Protein 1
Amino acid sequence: MMRIRASIATIAMVALVAAGIATRGAAQDKTLTIGVLGPLSGGAASYGVELVRGAEMKADEINKAGGLKVGNDVYHIKLVSYDHKALAADAATAANKLVFQDKVKYIIGNAVGATCNAVQTVTEPEKVLFSFVCWGTNNLGPDKPHSFRAMLSQWEVAEPFYRWVKEKHPAVKRVALISPNDTSGKDTNTAVVKALKGLAFEVAADEYYERGTKDFYPILTKMLATQPDMLDVAAAPAGEAGLILKQARELGFKGAKGWTAGTNPFTIIGVAGKDAAEGVWSPTNINVKSDFVSPTVRRFGEEYEKRYKEVPGVIAVANYAAFDVFTKAMQDARSLDTDKVLAALTQKPFDTVWGKLVLGGKETYGIDRQFLYPVVISEIRDGKVVDIAQVLPAALKK
Amino acid sequence: MSIELLVQALLNGFGLAMVYVLVALGLTLIFSILEIINFAHGEFYMLGGYITYYAYALFGLNYFATLGLAILTVGLAGVAAERLIFHHLRGRALNAFIVSLGLLWVMQAGAQLAFGVLDKPVPSAFSGVVRVFGLVMSVERVVVTLSAIVLIAALYLFLRWSRPGRAMRAVAQDPDAAALQGVNIDAASALGFGVGCALAGGAGGLLAPLFAVSPAMGALPVVKAFIIIIVGGMGSLPGAVLGGLLLGGVEGLGALFMGSAAVNILGFLMVIVVLLVRPRGLLSGA
C-alpha cells in the first residue's frame, strides 16, 4: 500500500512538475509586440534613434528579468520599429502597418508633431494606446483619449524657462525665435511667444525654416537685423540648431542663446563647435550625469553610454520612462486590454526614472494625458553641459 | 530696409552658389557625354563629405589634401560606376534613369548602414570673419567659394585645352564623328562620368565643414543643381555659372522679403518661367 501511495505521489509530483514546465513554457512563448515610430533618417533622425534606444533598453531589461508578468501570463517583449523620416504621409503608412499588419495595441514612441497627428488618425479609432514626444498642441485632447505625451512640451517648459531668464538675466529684453516650418515648430513658437508676451519680453523675430535647410545665412541676416538680445533656436533639432548657432556667430551675433526644445546639447556642441555653443540654455534637456538627476537616471545613462557609445538625451530617457509607465500599468490592470490599461494609467502617479511622475495637463489640453516632472535648465559651459537650475511647470505646482 | 542689408542678402546667396554650380557642372557633363541624368549624383557629393569627415575630422589630414583625396576617390568611384553599370546602359536613357534612381537608394542606405544616420560634424577648417563696409562673411565661406571658383576654372581649362578634355567635348557633340576621328568613346565616357562625380565629391568636401555630413545630405544640392542647369542651359558651363548666381540671388533676396519657408518655391518658379520663355535655358550651347 505504501509503495502504491509512493508511486501515486511520484506520478502526481512528476505530473505537477511537467504541468508547471508546460505552463511556464507556454507563458514564455507569449509575445507582446510593441511598436516604435520615429524619424530614423534625415535631419530629425537623432529623435528617432533615441526613441528606439530608450525602448530597447527597457524591453531588454524586462526580457532579461524573465519577461513581463501580466496577470497569470508572462510576455516576452518584441519591438517593431519603422522609420517615417519625419513625414506625415510615411507616418500614417507606418502606423497602418503596425496596427493592421503587426497587430500592435501599443505604440510607445514617436516624434515630430505632424507625424503624431497622422498616426493618431489610425490609433484613436482602433483604441491603440499611443505615447509620443511630439510637441504639437493638438496632439493631446479629449477627442484623443488614447494618446499620451511622455515628455514635457513647450506649454509646460516655455513659461518657467523664460521666467527664469527674466529673473537671472534681466538684460535680455528682445528675443528672436526660429523653428522648423511644421506643426512642432509653429506650436513651439506660439507657446514661446505667449510666454514672452506674458512676461513682458519683446519678440524681435518669429521665423520658420524648412526642415533639411543647411544654409541659414539668409534667414539669420534678416533676424539679426532686428538686433535681438537673445536667439532661441526653439524647436530646431540638434543638427539644425547647431548650424543656426554656428552661422549666427559667424554673422556676428554675441547675445544670449536659448534652445527651448533642446533635447541633446551634446550633439549641438559637436555641430556648432565649442565656441558657438557656449552659453546655450536648454530647459528640456536632461543631463544624465548631473547632480539634479536620481541615481536611477545616472545608472540608465551609464548603461546607455556603454551600449551605444553616446550620451543619452532627454528623448531616450522619456521613452524609457514611457515604456516603464505603460508596462507597469499593464501589470496593475492585470490585462493587455487597452481600456483596462488606460484606466490603470490614469489612476495614480508612477515611480519612474524621472522620480514621481504625474499625468496632468487638463487645464491646457482638456485631458490629463501629459507626463509631468520637474524642468532642469542646463547651460553649455566650455563644451560641457552643466545643470544650473530646477524649476517646476505650472501644472506640476498644483 | 538698408542697402547694406540688401547687399548682405545677395552676398549670402552668391556665397555658396559656386559650390552648387560645381555639382551642376558634374551633372551636366555626365548628361552631355553619356546622355544619362544621374539621379545618384547627390550621393557622390555625400561620399565626398564622408571622405572629408574621416580624413580631415578624424585622422587630421590637411584640409586641402583631404579635398584632393575626396575629388580623386569620388572620381574613381564615378569611373567604377560607369564601367560596371552605366556603360552597359548607353543609348537606353530610360533604363539608365531607373538604374540611377536605384543607385541613389542603394548608396544612401549603404551610407546609413556604414556611417550611421546621425549628422557627423566636421570642424571648421578656417576661423574668423571678413568684414568689409559692414558686410560680413566667415573666412571659411570665402575659402570655400574661392576653392569652388578655382575648381570651375580648372574644369574649363581641362575641357578647353587638354587632349582628354577635347575628346570628351567631341563625344558630347557627336560620338560617331568623334569615334571616326580616333577618339576612344569608352575611355572618354568613363572619364566624363569620373570627372562629373569628382566635381560632386569636391563640392561635398567643400561644404562638409560648413554643414556637417549625413547620408541624406545629397538631396538638397542635387535639386539646386537641376534648377541651375535647367535655368542656365543643359551642357553650358557659363550657363551653369549664370544659373547658380541667379538662384543664389533669388534665394538670398527671397529670404529677406518672403521668409525662409517660401524661398524654396522661388527656384522652381524660376524653372517654370525659363522653360516657358526659353526652354533650352538662358545660355544653351554657350
Note: Chain B has a mean pLDDT of 90.
Protein 2
Amino acid sequence: MSTHDTGPVVRARGLTKTYGSFTALDAVDLTFEANRIYGLLGRNGAGKTTAMQLLTGQIFPDGGTVEVFGRTPAEHADVLSRICFIAESQKYPDQFRPSHVFASAPWFFPNWDEALAAELIAEFRVPLGRPIKKLSRGQLSAVGVIVGLASRAPLTFFDEPYLGLDAVARATFYDRLLADVAEHPRTIVLSTHLIDEVSNLIEHVVLVDRGRILIDADAEEVRGSATTVVGTRGTVEAFVTGRDVIGRDGIGGLASVTFTGPLHPTERREARELGLELAPVSLQQLVVHLTGTEIPTEKEVVS
Amino acid sequence: MTTATLDGITVPPRSRRIWRVMRLHLAAPSVFLGIPWIIVGMAFFVSVAIAVLIALNGGQATGQRYSWAVLSPQWYLVVVGVQAVGLTFPFALGFGVTRRDFWLGTAALFTLLSLVNAAAYTILLQVERATDHWWTGTHMFDSLWYGLGPWYHDFFSTFALQMFVFFIGAATTTLYMRWRVVGVIAASAVVVVLLLAAAVVVTAVDGWSALADLLATATIPGIFTVVLATALLCAVGGYLVIRKATPRS
C-alpha cells in the first residue's frame, strides 16, 4: 500500500551486512507483499535482527539494495513514517517510564490509536509509572508490543515480541494482532525463535540461518513440506532412498528419518504396508532439522 | 511538503518533525529541566549556608567571588548531551525519525534551553545584587567572571558555555554511535596531535610571550566567542557524523 504503486512493501536484493570478518547477512533476497504476516525465524545470531535493522534504515548495508515502499528507508521521512520497529534490546531515553513512551508515540505514528493503546496497557498490566530500567523482561516486551500494535504502522516489525511474556500475555498478543490486522490490514514482520508459538499466526515463513535464507515460502506450504518416517532401520532406509533427507535419528534397530518433498497417496499406502509410521513435521521440528539439532530451540529462550 | 497518500499516512513538514524531536527530549522533563535546577537549588542552599556560617563566625563573605557553585549543573548537562545521542537517538530511530531531523531537533532544543538558561542566570544575578546578595552576602551567581561586565556579558557567556556543554557531549557521542570506541579514541588522538602541533608551531616562531600577551588582553566576550565557535563546530561536526550513525544492537 505504497504511495505510488501497489508493488511489494519490501524488496531487497543481494542484501549483505558484515561486522569485521563476520557476515551477518550474506547476499539475501527478500520480498514482502502488502498486508501479510511474515515470520522471520531462525536461531540466535542467525541474522534476524540485522535484517530488521537494514529494512528499517537503522543500519546501512555493505552490499546489495533495499527498497521499502519503493525507496531506501534510511533518512527518508516518508518511508520511515510508515514503519514501526521497537527492537528487542531497545534503548530508552534516560528517566523514561512507560507513560512517556505512550505519550510520545502519537507524535510519531500518524495512525496511532489511543483507545487501543489504553486497552492493551490494561490487558498487559504495564506499570505506567515505573522507570523503564526497572521493568521485567516481560513488561519491557509488553511496551514494545503495545507500541507496535497501537501505532498501526503500514509496516510493523516485532523483534522477539514473546520474550519474557507469560502465557496469558502471549495469547493476548496473538488474539489482538489477528483481530486488529483483520480490521486494519497492514504488513507485519515478526521475528522469533519460539516457532511453535507463532506457527499458526504467520502466513509466510522466512527461515534465516547463518546470514542466509533457508526457506522463503508460504507457511501452509512449509507445514506440509516435510515428513518423518519411523520403523525398522533397513525398511526406513530403503523407503527414503533418493529423497531429500534432512534429519536422521535412531535407537538400536529403529530409525527415524525426516525428509522434505511431497508424498503421494500410493507412497503412503506403500509405507503402511511396510509397517512404517509417517508423521507430519511441525514448523519448529523442521527448523530444528534445518538449522542444527544440537540445541532445541526452546532451551535458548528460557532465561 | 505535506503529501496525502493511499494509506492515510501524512508526512508532516520539517518544522513539525523538528518540533516533535524537541518534545521527545522533554517528554521526561526531569532530564533537561528538573535535575539541573534541583542541582542549582542545592548549590544555592549550600552557598547560603556557608555564607551564614562565615557571618556567624564573624567573617566577611561579601566580596568573595571564587565560588564555583554557579557552574554546578554544567557537569550534569554534559551527561545530558551524551545521553541525548546515546539513548534518545536509538529510541527516536525506532519511532521513524530521520538522523537529520533528530540532530536538527536536538540542536534546536539545545539552543532554546541555552537561551532560557542564559536569561535565567542573568536575571538571578541581578536579583542577587538587588537583594544585597540574598541578605546574607552569598555570592552564588555574582561570582567568577559573572557580574564583572554589563548584564549582556553574563547573558552571552552563559549562552556560549551552555551551548558548548551540550554540544561537546552530544557530538562526542555521535563519534561513538558511528565508529564506537575506535572513533572516540581516534578523535581524541587527533585533538591531542593538533594541540601538540600548535605548541610546536608557537615554539618554532618563538611566539609564547606574544601568546601570553594575547591571552592577558582577552576579554570575557572574546573568550566566550571562542567557546561558542567551538560549540558550533561540534554542532556541524555532529550533524555530519550522525548522518551515518547506527544504534548499538
Note: Residues 151-204 of chain B form the longest helix (54 residues).
